[in-house]
Each structure stands twice: as structure tokens, then as C-alpha cells.
């Protein structure tokens, strides 16, 4: 095992050397160096650049992004979900057991559905997710020193859960869109200490999302964009993501969904890992590998690497089908984000403690 670990770290050495060289060059740039040296300014710059790139792709390559982003980043971002919300938080055994039970229950419902063994109703899935979120909110409430906070959070969780059970189809569609923003909410509520340095890039995100969602830029997409990729046409995607709406608005909302989905993945893979770390610097490739090995363990790291390679391999053969299967099986992670948000909000107290590497 130690020999394998040593070879893995040796393989990362050239990447770390290239990283050091690039950073040394960028830090010498008069206007850029100070921005990269501080966490707040570095994140503001990173968010702005990422937002502009995601916006451009959503405007010109919306169908390709709908397929490729989940295939390339889906499994790593689910692992990042679990790492930063569960594994790095020092949770008690009762909370860990509740998390595990919810993951297993919802994943099982998705697996039997995808395998064609049984078609569970959307209402049953909504009920299981509601009970999971409510259970974690109650566990958080037991640890709080502010009873009013516990009452508010558990009450809101129960109310929203009942709404999803009553209208499961509409709730799932709404959650598909809101889930893309949830990573940003979790970052701001749980990890971010100061909001003011990032108000400008956050306003930039909102402006770009509204510009796309309103349909004001749709003519650019229709005239210059790639409307079909990997067997998925933008019109077909809008039928699923924005049904029963006027065509222009539906297409605009679909492009906005593409933009926000890219930011969702970026938040878990780029932004939150930097916030969930002590010090102003960023982690090297070797440090990241060691942290993954320490937190996920041998089996978890194997599942992460194997699952990523499996999705990439199957995606190369049948991209659209693989993407749809992944999104169905990974649905539990969206509920995990909601459940952990309910837990931490009900528990209250200080922001999450930053972890080493």
C-alpha cells in the first residue's frame, strides 16, 4: 500500500512543480499578484472568471454543457459534497447514522427505478426525503442553545416537506433549478465569514443569470450557438426543464439552468475547498490527494476513482443515456445538501471550523 501511495505522489510531483512555476509567474504581475495572495480577493477573481466562462458556454454551447458537465464533474462533485458537509465536520455517531440511512434509502429507490425492478412514486421519494431532512433538523435542534432557532428551522423544514409530498412533480422540477443555487447558499451560510468582499462577483452572477433566464440574449444562442449536441436538442431540454412556458422564456430558463449548474459544480470543486481550509494559501495536488486518502479511506477513494472512470467510459459510448442515468442515481446528493443545511441551521453556533488541507 505504501509503495502505491509513494508512486501516486511521485506522479503528482510534476503537476505541483508546474503549479509552483505558474503561481510564481502570476504573483510577479503587479496588478494580479496581490489579488492572488489573499483568499477573499482570489475567490472574487476566481468566481468572476468562472462565471464569465460558464455564461459564455451557456450562451453558445448549452446542449453540450447539459451533457458534458455532469459526465466530467458529476462523481467528483458528489464526493466533494460528502467530504465538506459530512466527513470533515466531526459529527456525532447519531448524525452520521442518520446521514447514512438517508443516503441508502434514497439511493435504493433510485437504483431499483433505474434497474427497472420497481417504479417508486415521486410522492414516496418526497416523503423519504422529508423525513430525512426533518430528522437531521431535529438532531441539530438537540444540540442548539437557541430554542427559537430550532423551532423555526424544524417548522420550515416540515412545511416545505409537506409541500413536496402534496405536489411531488412540481416540487422536483422546482428543486432541479433551485439545487443549482444551493451550493452557493451552503457556501455563504456555512463556510463564508465575510460577505462584503464578494458582493460584486455575487451580483455579477445574479446579473448573468437574469440576462439568460429572461430570454434577452436568446437571439445570440439561436443564431450563433450550438443547439444540439450528443443527441440532445435545446428545445427538448426546455420541455423537461421549463414545461408549459412560452418557448422564448422556456429556452431562456434552460440556458440559465446551464449557467447555474456549472457554477454549482464549481462551488463544490473550487470555491468551498478553499474556504474549508486554514490559511490563505491553496492546496497542492499532493496535499489534496493526501486529504482525499485520509478522509475517504482506501475503499472510498477507490469508489471515487472507479466511479469517475466508469462514467467517463460509458459516457464516451452513450453520452446522453449515461448522463441521464447518473443524474437519476445521484439525486440523493441534492437532498443531502438540504438535510445538512437543516441540521447546521438548527444547531446554530459559529460557522464551520476550517480544516487543514
Task: Provide structural commentary.
The protein is an all-alpha fold and 357 residues long. The chain has two domains: 1-37; 46-347, no CATH class. It has 15 helices and two strands. The protein has helices at 2-27, 33-37, 39-60, 62-87, 93-114, 122-141, 147-166, 168-191, 199-213, 218-224, 234-241, 247-275, 285-317, 319-329, 332-347; strands at residues 228-229, 232-233. A two-stranded antiparallel sheet has the order 1-2. Helix 4 packs parallel to helix 14, helix 4 (62-87) crosses helix 15 (332-347) and helix 6 runs parallel beside helix 15. The protein is globular. The protein starts with a helix and ends in a 10-residue tail after the last helix. The model has no long low-confidence stretch (mean pLDDT 91).
List keywords for this structure.
357 residues, two-stranded antiparallel ribbon, mainly alpha, single chain, globular
SSE layout and pairing:
Blueprint: H1 2-27, H2 33-37, H3 39-60, H4 62-87, H5 93-114, H6 122-141, H7 147-166, H8 168-191, H9 199-213, H10 218-224, E1 228-229, E2 232-233, H11 234-241, H12 247-275, H13 285-317, H14 319-329, H15 332-347
Antiparallel strand pairs: 1-2
What's the total helix number?
15
Give the helices and strands as they follow along the chain. Answer: HHHHHHHHHHEEHHHHH
Low-confidence stretches: none
- What is the 3D shape? globular
In brief, what are we looking at here?
This protein is an all-alpha fold and 357 residues long. The protein has 15 helices and 2 strands.
Amino acid at each position: 500500500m505504501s509503495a502505491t501511495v509513494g508512486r501516486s505522489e511521485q506522479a503528482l510531483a510534476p503537476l505541483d512543480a508546474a503549479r509552483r512555476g505558474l503561481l510564481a509567474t502570476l504573483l510577479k504581475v503587479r496588478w494580479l499578484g496581490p489579488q492572488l495572495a489573499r483568499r477573499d480577493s482570489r475567490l472574487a477573481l476566481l468566481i468572476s472568471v468562472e462565471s464569465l466562462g460558464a455564461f459564455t458556454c451557456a450562451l453558445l454551447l448549452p446542449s453540450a454543457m447539459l451533457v458534458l458537465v455532469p459526465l466530467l464533474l458529476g462523481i467528483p462533485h458528489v464526493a466533494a459534497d460528502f467530504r465538506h458537509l459530512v466527513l470533515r465536520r466531526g459529527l456525532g455517531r447519531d448524525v452520521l447514522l442518520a446521514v447514512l440511512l438517508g443516503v441508502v434509502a434514497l439511493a435504493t429507490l433510485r437504483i431499483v427505478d433505474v434497474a427497472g425492478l420497481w417504479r417508486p412514486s415521486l410522492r414516496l421519494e418526497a416523503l423519504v426525503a422529508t423525513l430525512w431532512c426533518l430528522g437531521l433538523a431535529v438532531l441539530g435542534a438537540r444540540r442548539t442553545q437557541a430554542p427559537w432557532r430550532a423551532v423555526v428551522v424544524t417548522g420550515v423544514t416540515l412545511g416545505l416537506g409537506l409541500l413536496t409530498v402534496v405536489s411531488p412533480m412540481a416540487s422536483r422540477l422546482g428543486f432541479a433549478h433551485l439545487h443549482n443555487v444551493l451550493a452557493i447558499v451552503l457556501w455563504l451560510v456555512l463556510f463564508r465569514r465575510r460577505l462584503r468582499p464578494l458582493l460584486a462577483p455575487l451580483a455579477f452572477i445574479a446579473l448573468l443569470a437574469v440576462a439568460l433566464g429572461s430570454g434577452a440574449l436568446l437571439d445570440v444562442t439561436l443564431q450563433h450557438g450550438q443547439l444540439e449536441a450528443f443527441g440532445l436538442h435545446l428545445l427538448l431540454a426546455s420541455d423537461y426543464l421549463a414545461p408549459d412556458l412560452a418557448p422564448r422564456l422556456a429556452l431562456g430558463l434552460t440556458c440559465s439552468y446551464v449557467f447555474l449548474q456549472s457554477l454549482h459544480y464549481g462551488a463544490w470543486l473550487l470555491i468551498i475547498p478553499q474556504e474549508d481550509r486554514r490559511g490563505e494559501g491553496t492546496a497542492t495536488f499532493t496535499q489534496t490527494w493526501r486529504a482525499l486518502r485520509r478522509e475517504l479511506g482506501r475503499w472510498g477513494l477507490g469508489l471515487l476513482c472507479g466511479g469517475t472512470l466508469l462514467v467517463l467510459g460509458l459516457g464516451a459510448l452513450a453520452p446522453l443515456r449515461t448522463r441521464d442515468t447518473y443524474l437519476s442515481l445521484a439525486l440523493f446528493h441534492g437532498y443531502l445538501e438540504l438535510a445538512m443545511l437543516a441540521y447546521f441551521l438548527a444547531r446554530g453556533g459559529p460557522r464551520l471550523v476550517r480544516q487543514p488541507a
